[in-house]
Amino acid sequence: MDLKDLLKKKKRSTKKQTAKNVAIGAGIGTAVGVAAGVLLAPQSGKETREDLVKTTKETLETVKEGLNVAKEKIEELVKKEKTFICGEDKEEEAEEVE
Q1: Is-contact 67 26, C-beta < 8 A?
Q2: C-alpha span between 82 and 18 (Å, rounded)
Q3: What does each of the 98 residues of the chain score in pLDDT, given as a tens digit?
Q4: How many CA atoms within 13 Å lie on the side-chain side of 33?
Q5: Boundaries of every domain in the chain
Q6: How far, in Å, CA of 18 to CA of 60, rounded?
Q7: d(Cα 59, Cα 33) in Å, to the nearest integer?
Q8: Is the pTM above the cut of 0.70?
Q9: Exposure string (b/e) for 39-56, b if CB count within 10 Å is 16 or more?
Q10: 62: left (phi over 0), alpha (psi -120 to 50) or beta
Q11: C-alpha 86 chain-centroid distance
């Protein structure tokens, strides 16, 4: 295994771990926020359930949007790294690999 392969493997591993950490953090933050909002709301049971459904849907959309942004950034980084590793004159080949 040469240096290029080792660098590629290390960067790929780091990016995967970063993506996992972002997703886990977003999920935990969302769950804590929803739980705190429901538990601290001074409303009747019916109103609380309605708010819970509404908040859950909004939160799900927010998380989806955040994950899409993270995915786009990761894809952009991967493309840049492929270009860097393969060399600028081989940029088209790196895009074909995707």
Answers
A1: yes
A2: 18
A3: 677 777 888 888 888 888 888 888 888 888 888 778 777 777 777 887 888 788 888 888 888 888 888 888 888 888 888 887 777 555 455 455 55
A4: 13
A5: 13-97
A6: 21
A7: 9
A8: no
A9: eeeeeeeeeeeeeeeebe
A10: alpha
A11: 26
